[in-house]
Write a structure and sequence with these properties.
- By secondary structure, this protein is mainly beta.
- The chain has 4 helices and 12 strands; from the N terminus they run E-E-E-H-E-H-E-E-E-E-H-E-E-E-E-H.
- It has a 6-stranded antiparallel barrel with strand order 1-2-11-10-7-12.
- A hairpin with a 4-residue loop joins strand 10 and strand 11.
- The longest helix has 10 residues.
- The two termini are 18 Å apart.
Length: 212
């Protein structure tokens, strides 16, 4: 059953192949995902599995959420995530999804929250060209330049690429290769960079484009 897993990004390292090549990998710690609820098309309109990871102290869980965990017969976790349940697959509340769901060489899509970079200008945020860094340019090397038009339409249109908040948004990186699966330590080693800061929660799912 390959639905997906929730894990935490722990950082990056590298592994060496039998030929001696260095492969950069992101280490994702995937503790057993406990199923707290199974949604179906009849009652919810869609099929999905709700899971939680980790542990949370009882005094930090309010009564409605505590009752939700108790109904499924699982220990309170750090949060709740939903994973779409493909047709033909089934799951039960109280069961666990583990890292052995995936295998080396498989392609996956990884979703996480990118690092927040605060308020950024157009050069950094949208890869704008800088102005000439030469004589005559007075402290406007990274300025965006003109943003308006003439009489028509005579305003700045919505969606204009300008300075603003950068990062801290949901990002999905597709077609990453699983290099190694460590079932003893609950680790996934995925080739390449995964969005988010170390310690952030990420969602690992079978690659959509690889399945099509």
């Amino acid at each position: 059953m390959k639905i997906g897993l929730i894990g935490r990004k722990r950082g990056m390292t590298r592994v060496f192949t039998e030929q001696g090549n260095s492969v950069p990998v992101t280490v994702i710690e995937v503790s057993p995902n406990r199923v707290t609820q199974v949604k179906n098309a009849e009652t919810d309109g869609y099929r999905s599995v709700q899971v939680t990871i980790g542990q949370r102290r009882a005094n930090l869980v309010n009564k409605p959420v505590s009752g939700h965990f108790a109904k499924a017969g699982v220990e309170a976790g750090e949060g709740l995530w939903e994973l779409r349940l493909p047709e033909g697959e089934a799951a039960e509340a109280g069961s666990e999804l583990k890292v052995d769901m995936f295998e080396a060489g498989e392609l996956v899509d990884v979703t996480g929250t990118s690092k927040g970079k605060g308020f950024a200008g157009t050069v950094k945020r949208h890869n704008f060209h800088m102005q000439d860094a030469t004589h005559g340019n007075s402290v406007s090397h990274r300025a965006p330049g003109s943003i308006g038009q003439c009489q028509t339409p005579g305003r700045v249109v919505k969606g204009k690429k300008m300075s603003g908040h950068m990062g801290d948004e949901r990002v999905t990186t597709q077609n990453l290769e699983v290099v190694r699966v460590d079932t003893e330590r609950n680790l996934l080693l995925i080739k390449g960079a995964v969005p988010g800061a170390p310690g952030g929660a990420v969602m690992v799912r079978p690659s959509v484009k690889a399945l099509s």
